[in-house]
């Protein structure tokens, strides 16, 4: 299992990113919130760019924003492996995915806990990752929604039935227990479980 670490809940992101850099974590999950798609708002790009200097890990950028086209060119500048947008936004999803691809970055599509998995179908041939939200997006430190296990399995069945090689990532409330319900995932994203602990590597290893 690959692990992506979210630093949303860090009190000092620069220090914790430097600490995460000493672990074998696969990706740094960068949560971006615009105060519209979700009510919280994260730091501006200039600040994010500054603190990204503290890591040499590839970034897994999660755009919880109404207008991804404003953000994609900015985050494409960083050491980015994936940029993920939400299927629920009122924008042209295909145009956003194409924009991500234009930067030779892998495109992800995320789905909230109450959105039908079938909404993903039109975009399957164009995406490299599906990010299954196992909490309502907007904040770190929430509890894993139990139904997420079935949703992950449903997404896996969908990918198999269309023969799509995209990977599955799950985000929200992931810890040493809830990860057991995510066996059909390729990547797990975990925030507070890792960064609120005093041994980042131990927690990361427990998720693999
Ligand atoms: C929620 C974010 C998640 C969150 C994960 O809106 O997308 O990435 O930071 O944090 P934990 O693991 O604490 O739920
Ligand atoms: Zn996230």
Question: What is the straight-line distance between the termini?
Answer: 5 Å
Q: Give the domain tally.
A: 1
Average residue-wise pLDDT:
98
CATH class: Alpha Beta
Envelope shape: globular
Range of strand content: 15-25%
Structural class: alpha/beta
The main pleated sheet reads as: 8 strands, parallel, barrel
CATH architecture: Alpha-Beta Barrel
Number of strands: 8
Could you explain how this protein is built, in words?
- The chain has 208 residues and is α/β, with parallel strands linked by helices.
- It has a single domain (2-207), classed as TIM Barrel (Alpha-Beta Barrel).
- Helix content is 29%, strand content 22%.
- It has 7 helices and 8 strands, in the order βαβαβαβαββαββαα.
- The protein has helices at residues 13-21, 45-51, 68-75, 93-102, 148-161, 192-195, 200-207; strands spanning 2-6, 27-33, 58-64, 80-86, 106-111, 129-133, 167-171, 187-190.
- Helix 1 (13-21) links the parallel strand 1 (2-6) and strand 2.
- The mean pLDDT is 98.
- It binds D-xylitol-5-phosphate and zinc ion.
């Amino acid at each position: 299992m690959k692990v992506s670490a979210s630093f949303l809940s860090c009190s000092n992101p620069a220090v914790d990113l430097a600490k995460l850099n000493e672990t074998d974590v696969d990706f740094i999950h960068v949560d971006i919130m615009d105060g519209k798609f979700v009510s919280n708002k994260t730091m501006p790009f200039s600040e994010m760019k500054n603190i990204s200097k503290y890591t040499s890990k590839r970034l897994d950028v999660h755009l919880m924003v109404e207008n991804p086209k404003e953000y994609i060119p900015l985050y494409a500048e960083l050491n980015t492996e994936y940029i993920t947008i939400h299927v629920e936004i009122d924008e042209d999803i295909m145009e956003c995915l194409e924009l991500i691809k234009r930067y030779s970055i892998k495109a992800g599509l995320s789905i909230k806990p109450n959105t039908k998995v079938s909404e993903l179908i039109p975009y399957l041939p164009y995406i490299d990752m599906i990010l299954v939200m196992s909490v309502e997006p907007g904040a770190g430190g929430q509890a894993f929604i139990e139904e997420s296990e079935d949703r992950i399995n449903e997404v896996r069945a969908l990918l198999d039935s269309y023969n799509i090689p995209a990977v599955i990532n799950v985000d929200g409330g992931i810890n040493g227990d809830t990860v057991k319900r995510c066996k059909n995932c390729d990547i797990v994203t975990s925030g507070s479980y890792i960064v609120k602990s005093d041994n980042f590597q131990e927690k990361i290893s427990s998720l693999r």
